[in-house]
Structures are given as structure tokens and as C-alpha cells.
Design a protein that fits this description.
The protein is mostly helical. The chain has 14 helices and 3 strands.
């Protein structure tokens, strides 16, 4: 039985970009493959979250993370396992062991570490070490597929290398996760999804961007989101064309429209191509975003904390059993047991 593993850090609220680029694709994969017999591990990487500041209340953010998946349409069944990383001590235990397999050289080469530490006087060790913890998250469960954005491919390669090295040194122990190319094929996309900033559409929409009108937060009221779409930067060509290079603003709106309504992009382009009333397109996309948010937000309200706690309870029993078994095998192989 193959395993898919996924998790989103709980540092802050998410944007429409996170929803369309990460949350929704993961939910679609989970719904499809769990029914085909795959294990789908959806975990809250709370230990990864504390490497950087937490906005709001950690406990609430953890519940919200799982609430997001459910509100985005995750269909629960026995193959879907939901757990909190810090409730499975084997993650940090295996991380330590893998720390002794990884080298300073390979960990120092991680682009994310360079980016996140650049120009800072003081950087916590967690920021340096988190790719090794991520390797433990993956290898403990023999995960094959880890649907991540392009920014995480280097960490995935590291996890593969650590698995291969450990297996070679101590004997066959870990399943080596699929390489990045296979991961993309599995996700069924030809490149990454990149929702653009509404004010500066050359850039991607980011939750850390300060400008309010640049991003749509999942907690924005539908009316507020619609206004943001209506005031989105477009161009002065005066006729709708799809081309991210020359018309990133209009192209972004077409892309959002296609993703939200699950329509082929070409179909959406054909509908609007040549139209000289940008306002009409904006009104339509604004409507789609508003509908999405009102459905999503009303779904969120229907999910109680108690329901999520119950999912954690079942998922953590499963995950502890599975992870402890693998950890024991690792400990035995290296002579600790
Ligand atoms: P930050 O500004 O803090 O980096 P972010 O919005 O880039 O926040 P991340 O936490 O870095 O969000 O990423 C969470 C997930 O969302 C990742 O899988 C990432 O690939 C995806 N993602 C982030 N921004 C976008 C976007 N604009 N379009 C599509 N996917 C996105
Ligand atoms: Mg980011």
C-alpha cells in the first residue's frame, strides 16, 4: 500500500494562493487516492512551525489547519490519517538519528536555509535542521508521494539521499520516496500553480506581503474579496488575452476563474478572449471568489473542535504505532536496541 504525506505549517492564516496552489490540489489527491487504497497522512507540522514566529494562538491555528482541509472538501475515510507531529515523539527521535547521518555540507547547501538566514544576526538551529526533521516525517511512514511546491524539492532530494545512505550503511530499512519529476507527474500538473499578487501581478501572492489589496485571505468577507478583485491591476491593452509575460494581471484573473470552477483554462480563455470590458471579467471572477469564500467559510463553521480532536485521537494512535515500529527497526539496525 502506497503512502501520500502532506502538511501545512500553522504560522498564520492562508491566502487564496495557498488555497488554490496547495490546499485544494492536496484535497483532490487525498479524495482520489485514499479510495484507491493509498494511505493518506495529513499531519500538522507543529514542530516545524515553531522555527518562526506564530501569528495568533498556536492551539487554535492547529485546529484551523485541519478545519481548512475539511472545509475544502476532504472526504474522510479509514485510509486518511490526521495527526499532530509533536504528538508522535518518534519524529524528533528519528530526526536526531538522521542528524548523525546527514552532513554539515549537504544541510548547509539548502536554499531555504540560505534565504531564511541571510542578513540575520541570529538564526535558530531549527531553521538549519528542519529539512532533517522533514526527512524523518517522511521516512517514518515509508511515504512514496509528498506533494510539495517547487521550493521544497531540494528537501525531498535530501530525504531521498538520507534514506539511500542509511539503507546502504545499516541495511534495507527505509522506502526511498519518489524523485521530484515523478512527484509532479503524480500531482497531475505540468508546472507549479502560481497565483499572482493582485497589485503587482509580476510577483506571486504571498501571505507575508503587507499590502492588504495584494492578497485575498481565506477569512476575508466575500464582499471585501470581490472589491479586491475589482481593483486588481490589469493592463491598458483594452482587450482580453492570456499571456503571463505581457499581461500578468488579466492572465491571473483567468487562471483564478479556471481553478475555482474546475474548468479547463483554455475554455475560460476562449470565453473571454478579445472582450474589451475588463470590468465584466472582474465582476465574474469577483463573483467566483466570493462564492468560494462564502461556501468555504460556512463549511468552516460547521466543523467543531471536538470533531477534530476525535480525528487526532484516531490518527495519533495509528501514527504512533506505525512510527514506533519503524523507529525500533532503525534503533535495532544501528545497535541502540
Ligand atoms: P510566505 O510569504 O510566508 O512564504 P506563502 O504564501 O508563500 O507565505 P508558504 O507557507 O510559503 O506560503 O507556502 C504554503 C504552500 O502554499 C506551499 O505549498 C506553496 O507552494 C503554496 N503557495 C504559496 N503561495 C502560492 C501562490 N501564490 N500560488 C500557488 N501556491 C502557493
Ligand atoms: Mg512562501
Amino acid at each position: 500500500m502506497k503512502t501520500i504525506l502532506t502538511g501545512l505549517r500553522v504560522n498564520s492564516e492562508l491566502t487564496l494562493g495557498n488555497y488554490l496552489g496547495a490546499l485544494l490540489p492536496m484535497v483532490r489527491l487525498a479524495n482520489r487516492y485514499s479510495k484507491e487504497g493509498f494511505n493518506v497522512n495529513i499531519f500538522v507540522p507543529d514542530l516545524h512551525s515553531i522555527i518562526s514566529p506564530i501569528e495568533g494562538n498556536m492551539k487554535e491555528n492547529i485546529l484551523r489547519s485541519i478545519r481548512y482541509y475539511l472545509a475544502a472538501g476532504l472526504e474522510l475515510n479509514d485510509n486518511i490519517h490526521i495527526y499532530r507531529q509533536s504528538y508522535i515523539p518518534a519524529h524528533s527521535e528519528l530526526c536526531w538519528i538522521l542528524n548523525c547521518v546527514a552532513t554539515m555540507g549537504e544541510a548547509s547547501r539548502m536554499t531555504q536555509f540560505k534565504e531564511k538566514s541571510e542578513g540575520k544576526d541570529s538564526v535558530n538551529v531549527g531553521i538549519f535542521d528542519y529539512p532533517i526533521l522533514m526527512a524523518a516525517d517522511i521516512l517514518l511512514y515509508d511515504a512514496n508521494y509528498i506533494p510539495v511546491g517547487e521550493d521544497q524539492f531540494q528537501h525531498l532530494e535530501l530525504a531521498r539521499n538520507l534514506a539511500l545512505r542509511f539503507n546502504k550503511r545499516f541495511g534495507e530499512t527505509f522506502t526511498v520516496p519518489e524523485e521530484s519529476k515523478k512527484q509532479i507527474e503524480f500531482m497531475g500538473i505540468d508546472g507549479g500553480i502560481r497565483i499572482r499578487d493582485l497589485v503587482n501581478p509580476e510577483k506571486k501572492m504571498s501571505k507575508s506581503t503587507l499590502a492588504e489589496n495584494s492578497k485575498i485571505m481565506l477569512s476575508d468577507s466575500p464582499e471585501k474579496a470581490k472589491k479586491k478583485i475589482m481593483s486588481a491591476t490589469t493592463d491598458s491593452f483594452g482587450s482580453v488575452e492570456f499571456d503571463f509575460k505581457t499581461r500578468p494581471g488579466i492572465s491571473n484573473l483567468l487562471n483564478i476563474e479556471s481553478l475555482i470552477n474546475n474548468l479547463p483554462l483554455n475554455e475560460v480563455i476562449a470565453t473571454w478572449k478579445g472582450n474589451d470590458r475588463y470590468g465584466d471579467l472582474k465582476a465574474k471572477v469577483g463573483e467566483s471568489v466570493a462564492n468560494l469564500l462564502s461556501t468555504f467559510q460556512s463549511n468552516l463553521e460547521k466543523i467543531s473542535d471536538a470533531e477534530i480532536e476525535k480525528l487526532f485521537e484516531a490518527g495519533e494512535t495509528y501514527a504512533n504505532t506505525k512510527a514506533n515500529k519503524k523507529l525500533l527497526e532503525v534503533q535495532a539496525k544501528i545497535g541502540l536496541r
